[in-house]
Amino acid sequence: MKIKRRDFLKGAAGCGVLAAVGQPANAEAKKKERLPGALGFLYDSTLCIGCQACMVGCKKANEMPVESSDLLPIWENPRDLSAKTLNVIKKFESGTGTNKDQETDGFAFVKRQCMHCVDPGCVSACPVSAMRKNPDTGVVTYNKDACIGCRYCQIACPFNIPKFQWDSAFPQIVKCQLCSHLLPKGEIPACCSSCPTGATVFGPTSELMAEAQRRQQMEPGKYYDYPVSSLDSGKNFSQKAASYVPQIYGENEVGGTQVLMLAGVPFSKLGLPELPEKSYASTAETIQHTIYKGMIAPIVVLAGLYYFVNRSQKDKD
Amino acid sequence: MRCRESGFDKIPGGVSRRDFLKVCTATAVYMGLPASFGPKIAAAATTAKKRPPVIWLSGQECTGCTETLLRATHPTVEHLILDLIALDYSETLNTGAGHQAEEYRAKSIEENKGKFILVVEGSIPVKDGGIYCKVAGKPVLEILKETAPKAAAVVAIGSCAAWGGVPSAGPNPTGATPAYKILEGTGIPVINIPGCPPNGYNFLSTVLYYVTFKKLPELDEKLRPKFAYGRLLHENCERRPHFDAGRFAEQFGDEGHRMGYCLYKLGCKGPETFNNCSTLRFNDMGTWPVNTGHPCFGCSEEGVGFNIPLHTPAEVKNITPSAVQTPITVDHGGGGSTGAVALAAGVAGAAIGAGIVALKKIDQTEKKQD
To answer: Which domain holds residue A179?
Structure first.
């Protein structure tokens, strides 16, 4: 059986047309809203002193190994998120690097970990539901027993968060799961409980959003009370308000995230990507769900293929 | 006020009431007890019908442990150690000598059976029946085995008694053995106070704890009291900020050394030594090796002091982040090596070539068919 090049191209074009025609306009996935019980934390870069206590707390709580990247392996100092590090504090520096939260001649810290998206790309991309979004808390969790190691989640994540254990014989994906093992015990994520200044505070995302908006309204230079550890901890820390950039990172990025961030320098300087309001997952799902809706398009494509194959068979005969 | 209430009319001569209470309060604080335990300790030390008798045995040692205890002047602890406890036998401090001293030891042991504290200073040689260290013609090994079952508790003072110390360093010609190993399985409580020498207050605090509460302080798995040996030196070292920031003295007398930078690179064993030198310090004047500019050599830590060369960098326990944060963007990997790039290029070239050949073949077959 031989297919002529011309016939093959014809067939391919035909299939494409059929697929395009078969796309109903109203199939676009609805924008996902934050779950009412969504949990997360608010990271305020202006309060962060770069002590890395959250990194130590995270390692302890999640029993992660030490990662030393220096020639002198005496410190725990991961260069970036990795299969051994779920949470990292990074430093932006410019010019003389002397003024905190200033874009020129200044410095600022940023905490990087899973953002726990409202509509996570990793969950959408995972073919075996190893990545799941908790239906109550919205925390994005990973199930190593379901994982097949395809690493689609790594490609799907707009924040480059999931990491793969390349050096393991039975590798797993590693990412922050908001200390899901501590939450049922009534404890809060280790990075929040270990933060001494309240730069990372745990709470329901809706309340965190209100807190972030409150901080945006603050008058720079005046003293305000900032909650420490969690919004309902009752512990407060009085601090001079910094001048925030007028953006709550995570409010709208890729459909919103449950982790919210505030900073005194533009987020692009802190290595956080500028992202569309629409989640990549919803775009991809719209295409996917449209193609397979009612299985009409696949059947039509199959029928077309069958027709061409059959015809070329006849030609040969 | 407290002094009057407690009624310390029996305070030993030469020590003022205030000084005596000060010492008792200080020992309470060293042990992590509230300062209010000071008067309690003082009461226990003075109101007991009989001062707790102490028999001090010496094995293979340098007497440094006794010396450091005598040098404590907080105030004049030599008075306290002699009067607070009844030091019935100590080869260094005995007034009597020879048979007289030995007789007194035997008498005290018989009289205070099950009540006295046995202090062991120095390691015990076990090779060839322990003949390498004898007192009054008797191997110390035998003396210890005879005496320990009659004691209330055994305190092994110094690294030699606690884990072997200098005499046990390779090739250990005398078979130097720590006290707890000799008494293993006998059920006799042993407390180790390692150090070369240990801080006198660690010893004093342990003894006073026992006298006050009639039980041993909480011990770790190496039988050391946790109040003194629960933390790494490194965790409370005054040079710690320099370690975190990566500022090190590279050699003795260099710029960093004079600036008081961290001594890790000079071989400081602080990151692997559990002791309280960095907080308690020595000689009642706040001194300890590290603040004189010399790295800790881990004298109190088994397998470190006298085992690892002085200037070999320590194995850091409890690794924590440095004070320097990672930058926002980090280069991952260093790009492909020349060999890897050449191989990849070769493979790609071969694939392109094969593709061209295959296409030509398809073209030819099609032409034939047409």
So the answer is: 39-277
Residue A114 CA to residue A160 CA, distance in Å, equals: 9
Mean pLDDT to the nearest integer, A207-229:
94
Rounded to a whole number of angstroms, the distance from the CA of B246 to the nearest CA of chain A is: 9
The 10s digit of each residue's pLDDT in A66-102 is 888 877 788 888 889 999 999 999 999 999 988 999 9
CB of A76 less than 8 A from some CB of B: yes
Chain B CB within 8 Å of residue A289 CB: no
Q: In this structure, is residue A94 part of a structural domain?
A: yes
Cβ atoms of residues B202 and B193 within 8 Å: yes
CA atoms within 13 A on the CB side of B244: 17
Residue A12, in any domain of the structure: no
User: Which amino acid appears at position A182 of this protein?
Assistant: L
Of B327, B330, B366, nearest to A5 by CB-CB distance is: B366
* Whether B321 contacts chain A with CB within 8 A: yes
> CA B269, B273, B278 angle in degrees (round to 5)?
90
Q: Which residue has the higher pLDDT, A242 or B71?
A: A242
Specify the pTM: 0.72
Size of interface A-B (CB pairs under 8 A): 58
Output the six-digit token pair for B172.
Answer: 């250990």
Q: In angstroms, rounded to a whole number, what is the distance separating the alpha carbons of residues A209 and A260?
A: 7
Domain assignment of residue A289, yes or no: no
CB A282 within 8 A of CB A307: no
> How do beta strands B117-121 and B53-58 pair?
parallel
Q: How far apart are CA B256 and CA B47, in angstroms?
A: 54
CA angle B274, B117, B63 (to 5 degrees): 60
Quote the tokens at residue B167: 């005499």
Q: Is the pLDDT of residue A44 over 50?
A: yes
Residues 6+ apart with CB under 8 A from B235: B278, B318
The answer to whether the CB of B296 falls within 8 A of the CB of B268 is yes
Contact A222, A212 (CB under 8 A): no
Nearest by CB: B326 against A2, A4, A80? A80
Q: How far apart are CA B138 and CA B131, in angstroms?
A: 8
Residue A255 lies in a domain: yes
Residue A79 C-alpha, separation from nearest chain B C-alpha, in angstroms:
5
The domain total for chain A is 1
Query: In this complex, do A75 and B320 lie within 8 Å of one another by their Cβ atoms?
Result: yes
Which of B321, B327, B328 lies at the smallest CB-CB distance from A52? B321
Where residue A215 sits, what CATH number does that domain have? 3.30.70.20
Across the interface, whether the CB atoms of A89 and B325 are under 8 A apart is answered yes
Of B264, B324, B327, the CB nearest to A74: B264
Q: What is the pLDDT of residue B13?
A: 47
Q: How far apart are CA B69 and CA B55, in angstroms?
A: 15
pLDDT 10s digits, A181-217: 999 999 999 999 999 999 999 999 999 999 999 999 9
A255 touches B at CB < 8 Å: no
Neighbours of A128 (CB within 10 A): 13
Give the pLDDT confidence score for residue A246 in this predicted structure: 93
Which pair of tokens denotes residue A34?
A: 């934050």
